[in-house]
Amino acid sequence: MNGRTDGPEVLEISANAGVVQARQLVRVLAQQCRLSLVEQTKLITAASELARNTLIHGGGGTMTAGLVDERGRHGVRLVFTDQGRGIEDTDLAMTDGWTSGSGMGLGLSGSKRLVDDFVLDTAPGQGTTVTITKWGR
């Protein structure tokens, strides 16, 4: 990356095709960041779960994705945003093993374990934004 920060790309997630496109874009960015195959798989898995949550629970939204360069570290940052109903009980939603009954069963807590940085911003009736970052080694 040589100190450059590529501008973020915004991808609409309004159908299953958007989830597939999100996975493809994340794979490209993870390879550009030179993440190991294991780290790529973790990031793509987390992105897939969060994109599906954006579609199913948020009624659709966006994924903003880009390479980041902070404090000498290179990584991939993804921001999933929806204008859905929000998460009423974030403690419950972040509990291991809790599921709403759909998706891969990883949930938010599983996605959090797969990445290095995880920020959840939500409120009932106000939508949800999840920001994740995976740093290269």
Which properties best describe this structure?
single chain; 137 residues; alpha+beta; Heat Shock Protein 90; 4 helices; 36% helix; disordered N terminus
Helix content: 25-40%
**Fourth-tier CATH superfamily name:** Histidine kinase-like ATPase, C-terminal domain
Please name the CATH topology: Heat Shock Protein 90
Count of individual helical segments: 4
Radius of gyration, whole Å: 14 Å
| Element-by-element helix/strand order | EHHEEHHEE
> What is the residue-mean pLDDT, rounded to a whole number?
88
Outline the secondary-structure elements:
Elements: E1 9-13, H1 16-32, H2 37-56, E2 61-70, E3 73-82, H3 90-93, H4 107-114, E4 117-122, E5 128-135
Antiparallel strand pairs: 1-2, 2-3, 3-5, 4-5
Describe it:
It is a single chain. This protein is α+β, with helices and mostly antiparallel strands. It is 36% helix and 28% strand. The protein contains 4 helices and 5 strands; from the N terminus they run βααββααββ. It has a 5-stranded antiparallel β-sheet with strand order 1-2-3-5-4, with helices on one face. Residues 1-5 have low confidence and may be disordered.
Brief write-up:
By secondary structure, the chain is of the alpha+beta class. The chain is built from four helices and five strands.
